[in-house]
Amino acid sequence: MKVILIVDDNSTNLRTLGEMLRPFYRIRLADSGAEALRIVGSQPQPDLILLDVMMPGMDGYEVLRQLQADEATRYIPVIFVTALHDEDSELRGFELGAADFLQKPVRSAIALSRIRAQLDAKEVRDSLRKSNRTMVSQMEEGARQLEVAQMQLLQSEKMASIGQLSAGIAHEINNPIGFVASNLSALARYLQDLLAVAALCAENPGGRDAEAILADVRAHLRRIDFDFLREDVSGLVAETRDGVDRVRQIVADLKGFSHSGDSEWVWADVHAGLDSTLNIARNEFKYHCKLVKEYGELPHIRCIPSQLNQVFMNLVVNAAQAIEGEGQITVRTECTGDNSVQVSVSDTGSGIDPDKLSQIFEPFYTTKPVGKGTGLGLSLSWGIVERHGGSIKVLSEPGKGTTFNVRLPIDGPTGG
Fold first, then answer.
1. Which of 23, 63, 109, 366 is the Cys-Cys partner for 33 at CB 3.0 to 4.6 Å?
2. pLDDT tens figures, 2-61
3. pLDDT at 371 over 50
4. 325-358: per-residue pLDDT in tens?
């Protein structure tokens, strides 16, 4: 049964309206505005309110204003019950959100008809709001699932890229590890020679005097070629430190590139992302391609760095694989106007046939041999750049090479 709250400071009016409506509805009564607000905040919440306008303390207009200000009560229809007959009073009530007016003395048939009409309208509005909430919830869930699927696809492509580059990455790590291990062996021998010197200085067998001990030390230093050892140790330590730093940088770049949960928009250095990506992909091009970096002055841009790095990785690896024999890869950056930057990756490879240019961004389209690509790299790159509010264009001529131009807004996507 629908619940109606009657609010009036006159007990006779409360009783009269209550008796009129009680056969049809569940009735709750309030003799003041404050009491009405208290009842509305309790259960069962009324489906409709009959509200007197002229009340001491808090009039009906203020009660309605507070009801409209609360998300939990703003959709309860309010019918003003008043002895006021002027147009201004009604206009003020409607502007505040009143659903209707009933004039005192209230006529039963008219009151019941208007109450029924407002309750029917409320039922329709409630149903529409519920449907709307359901649709919004379904859309949000669909968007969330799509986002999760896209992130999983991006992560799968990242790991596929790492897998395809794994041999080269292992080579890039093994080289410095190899000479670090060799250097450590040499340093271990040198340490034994130096410890022998320390032992000679520390011993004093048979009360030998200092001159005799010093003579033995000098003889030992000549045997181990101390001047060469001192110079070589410095070089070995510096080389070992460089090797460790090289491995550390590769691992850091790999960690950043393969990170799965990085979807936060931040202000980032495009050049740092490019250098990190080139470091990972270095073995793909270093033996047969000359790398030319033509970096312009760029501001930091608002982006998701790990996703842009994946775009750069796809373009650089594609460029390296497009070059048979010797060639050159050029990575160029520049500002384009006041609001965007451009990253260009050019190669001197085989180029792309004109009839295939329109297909290269399609999912699963690839001209590479089996095992050389997933066919998703350029498609995902297109999606990433589009998500960033940018554009990616390709210029290619068979036999002369290809250039990919990635333009990105400095401030990120509008509304992103």
1. 63
2. 999 999 999 899 999 999 999 999 999 999 999 999 999 999 999 999 999 999 989 999
3. no
4. 899 999 999 999 889 999 999 999 988 888 777 6
The answer to whether domain 3-106 and domain 262-416 are alike in fold is: no
Q: In what order do the strands lie in the sheet with 340-347?
A: 289-294, 327-336, 340-347, 401-409, 391-397
Fold of 3-106: Rossmann fold (3.40.50)
Find, among 391, 412, 394, 414, the residue nearest to 404 by Cα.
394
Q: What mean pLDDT value characterizes the chain?
A: 83
∠ CA 30-33-35, rounded to 5°: 50
Cis peptide before 105 (omega within 30 of 0): yes
CA distances from 390 to 139, 405, 413 (A): 25, 10, 8
Cβ–Cβ under 8 Å, residues 344 and 395: no
- The rounded Cα 369 to chain-centroid distance in angstroms is 34
Tell me the CA end-to-end span of the chain in Å, nearest whole number: 48
| Higher-pLDDT residue of 148, 375 | 148
Is residue 272 classed as helix, strand or coil in its secondary structure? helix
Q: Do the beta carbons of residue 260 and residue 155 sit within 8 Å? A: yes
User: What is the spatial distance between Cα 54 and Cα 52, in angstroms, rounded to a whole number?
Assistant: 6
Q: What CATH number was assigned to the domain covering residues 262-416?
A: 3.30.565.10
Rounded-to-integer distance, Cα 194 and Cα 300, Å: 51
The one-letter amino acid code at 243 reads G
The domain ranges of the chain are 3-106, 262-416
- CB contact set of 394 (below 8 Å; sequence gap of 6+): 352, 357, 360, 402, 403, 404, 405
- Structure tokens belonging to residue 254: 């790999």
Of all helices (H) and strands (E), which one includes residue 356? helix 354-357
Q: Hey, which of 66-75, 274-283, 369-378 has the most confident mean pLDDT?
A: 66-75
Displacement of CA 114 from its chain's centroid (Å)? 52
pTM (global) more than 0.70: no
* Residue 159 DSSP label: H
**From start to end of 266-308, where are the E strands?**
266-268, 289-294, 301-303
Please give the radius of gyration of the chain, using alpha carbons only, rounded to the nearest integer. Answer: 40
**340-347 vs 401-409, strand pairing mode:** antiparallel
Each residue of 167-219: pLDDT tens digit? Answer: 666 666 777 787 788 888 888 887 887 777 777 676 665 556 767 767 777 77
Could you read off the pLDDT of 86-113 as tens digits, one per residue? 788 888 889 999 999 998 888 889 999 9
